[in-house]
From TrEMBL:
PANTHER family: 2-DEHYDRO-3-DEOXY-6-PHOSPHOGALACTONATE ALDOLASE-RELATED, 2-KETO-3-DEOXY-6-PHOSPHOGLUCONATE ALDOLASE. Pfam families: Aldolase (PF01081). Pathway: Carbohydrate acid metabolism; 2-dehydro-3-deoxy-D-gluconate degradation; D-glyceraldehyde 3-phosphate and pyruvate from 2-dehydro-3-deoxy-D-gluconate: step 2/2. This is 2-dehydro-3-deoxy-phosphogluconate aldolase.
Length: 227
């Protein structure tokens, strides 16, 4: 590898992403027509970041519609191939999230100048992404990997890394993660559950989003006194 190649590989492919909102709803969208009212309902509850997963045919159109909503930052989840990076960025995605770590996806995200949040599960995964200059990762599937205790253990050797736990979180378990200083945000689907979207229960989406933000504020570690 040339000297230029080594420098390029060390450049971060993600900037600060997780500090914007402590709750990142993960949406499996069945109908693209629901994207805009869902986004408006989340904004009404104070949540201004959302992840649309590439698990349904409606995902790309949903991203496109939400990208036009003022005040909302929409990203794409379940991005596992570099061609998907192109498709979601062209649709308006402001960031990409993956369940694991793919060099090809990270390279394409860098080429498209879009933040990427790779999934990690082990210390080896973290070593690989840190070597590429990343400082923010998705910890997935958090519940099965040991929850807050596992993140706390991994954070020791990687003090500069911020984690977004995903998988198995809900309103009852999120506080244990957000109490960790290395966890600025969590992701989950309970406030945008498929049954809420199918029933177009936008009032419940707003209520659950606002409740999640209140719980997040209560879970934050108290600031250390100066001096």
């Amino acid at each position: 590898m040339s000297r230029v190649d080594r420098t390029s590989a060390a450049r971060p492919v993600t900037g600060p992403l997780l500090g914007r909102c402590p709750i990142v709803p993960v949406v499996v969208l069945a109908d693209a027509a629901d994207a805009l009212p869902m986004g408006e309902a989340l904004l009404a509850g104070g949540v201004d970041v959302v992840e649309i997963t590439l698990r349904t045919p409606a995902a790309l159109d949903g991203i496109r519609r939400l990208a036009a909503l003022p005040g909302m930052r929409v990203g794409a989840g379940s991005v596992v191939r570099p061609d998907q990076v192109d498709r979601v960025v062209d649709a308006g995605a402001a960031f990409v999230v993956s369940p694991g770590t793919s060099a090809a996806v990270l390279d394409r995200a860098r080429a498209r100048s879009v933040p990427a949040l790779p999934g990690v599960a082990t210390a080896s995964d973290l070593m690989a992404v840190v070597a590429r200059g990343l400082t923010e990762v998705k910890f997935f599937p958090a519940g099965l990997l040991g929850g807050p205790a596992a993140i706390s253990a991994l954070a020791g050797p990687f003090p500069g890394v911020s984690f977004m736990p995903s998988g198995g979180l809900d309103a009852a378990t999120m506080a244990g993660y957000l109490a960790l200083p290395c966890v600025p945000a969590v992701s989950g689907s309970w406030m945008v559950a498929p049954e809420l979207l199918a029933g177009r229960r936008w009032d419940v989406v707003t209520t659950e989003a606002a409740r999640a933000l209140r719980l997040a504020a209560q879970a934050r570690p108290a600031p250390r006194p100066e001096g």
